[in-house]
Amino acid sequence: MAGQQRVYRARIRSTASLEKIFRAMELIASSRISKARQSVASSTPYARAISRAVSAVATYSDVDHILTTEKESVRRAAVLVITADRGMAGAYSSNALKASEQLRERLEDEGKQVATYVTGRKGVGFLRFRKRDIAAEWTGFSDAPKYEDARTIGDTLVDAFLQDYEDGGVDEIHIVYTRFVSMVTQQPEIVRLLPLEVVEGTEPPAPDELLPLYAFEPNPAEVLDALLPKYVNSRIYNALLQSSASELASRQRAMKSASDNAKELIRTYTRLANQARQAEITQEISEIVGGADALAS
Amino acid sequence: MTLQVELVSAEAKVWSGTARMVIARTSEGEIGVLTGHEPTLALLAPGKVTIRGEDGSTVVAEVEDGGFLSIDHDRVTVVADTAALADSAV
């Protein structure tokens, strides 16, 4: 019977040490999340400046650019999935991957080939396990992406877009990322990155504020040429930042419920251990009493 | 009348404030911006951007990678992938 008690005690100890880990991870995630949200905020001036400039060029010049032109027939589409590098984030990565799988099915139903680009080790692992071809992968920055990372990804995607289909190029590019709505809601989202639909920034300029008639230096075509890849990069950067904030938020939530569950388990095991101890004592007493009775009679 | 200047890099707003004059190097050559400049969108060449503040102070920023400069209604926005303030004002 003492064995039963020992088993419970061991379980309590191991659960308690797990709980410490969960708690630490929860605290780490919640301290990083404010930083991640801050970088989303501090990248907005750049994003706004770029969108403003791009829409200014697009509005006041009728320059056609290859990045904004729809291709006549779309034969191969690229999908960029943004996932986490590490697990312990609840359903964060699997939600993003689920959305990307749906997108892939839809594209294949439309008769397009799909080239997959992925960031984050979880996504890489998911695709490797299913023996999928990965066109390119980037890992190691999912919880604190830098602009450099976005630029590397953007350059690769734009290059793929500029290549002809015959040389392995793609005709459109989609991004699957997780939008950070609030601390409790993160929404996997699919956007088409290229060909670009130039939209006004998240905050459209006030209606009375007309875009001025700009002079372009050296000329509209070259300005657009330089701006559009930057615009693409800044969209990717924004997606990475949103995803990192979402990742941290879901990790925090997952770890919170894990440590709550661990506490609950410890409570249950403590009760069971106490019960086992009590049962043992009761049994010993009744054995002694039984023995004494036998001797007395 | 003064210029409203914003110096923005991809990761953060580096500097903002009011200025008398902004000097930058575009792909075509040096440009000096005073109030009342015509609206312009210009590509920047890598180099220094000098902002002469209202009070005579000077801010120098190092723009590394090609960025751009937009001027409208006396608002100047200098945008670059990477930009940093130079240590010492000239």
Protein architecture, described:
The complex is a heterodimer of chains A (297) and B (90). Chain A has 297 residues and is of the alpha/beta class. Chain A has 2 domains: 2-17 and 253-296; 28-205 and 212-252, Pyruvate Kinase, Chain: A, domain 1 (3-Layer(aba) Sandwich). Chain A has 5 helices and 6 strands, in the order αβαβαβαβββα. Chain A has helices at residues 2-60, 92-109, 121-129, 147-162, 220-296; strands at residues 76-82, 113-119, 136-138, 172-180, 186-194, 215-217. In chain A, helix 2 links the parallel strand 1 and strand 2 (113-119). The radius of gyration of chain A is 29 Å and the shape is elongated. Chain B contains no helices and 9 strands. Chain B is mainly β. Chain B has strands at residues 3-9, 13-25, 30-33, 40-43, 47-53, 58-63, 68-72, 75-80, 83-85. Chain B is globular, with a radius of gyration of 12 Å. Chain A binds chain B through residues 39, 42-43, 45-46, 49-50, 52-53, 56-57, 146-147, 150-151, 211-218, 222-223, 226-227, 230, 233-234, 237, and chain B through 6, 8-13, 26-28, 31, 38-43, 66, 68, 70, 72-73, 77, 79, 81-82.
CATH class of chain B: Mainly Beta
Mean pLDDT of chain B: 84
CATH H-level superfamily of the largest domain in chain A: ATP synthase, F1 complex, gamma subunit
Q: Briefly, what CATH class of the largest domain in chain A?
A: Alpha Beta
- Helix and strand content put the structural class of chain A at alpha/beta
Helix and strand content put the structural class of chain B at mainly beta
Low-pLDDT regions of chain B: none
Strand content of chain A: 5-15%
How many structural domains of chain A?
Answer: 2
Output the number of helix runs of chain B. 0
CATH topology of the largest domain in chain A: Pyruvate Kinase, Chain: A, domain 1
Number of structurally distinct domains of chain B: 1
Q: What is the end-to-end distance of chain B?
A: 24 Å
How many strand segments of chain B?
Answer: 9
Q: Mean of residue pLDDT of chain A?
A: 87
CATH topology of chain B: ATP Synthase, domain 1
Helix content of chain B: under 10%
Q: Which term fits the overall shape of chain B? A: globular
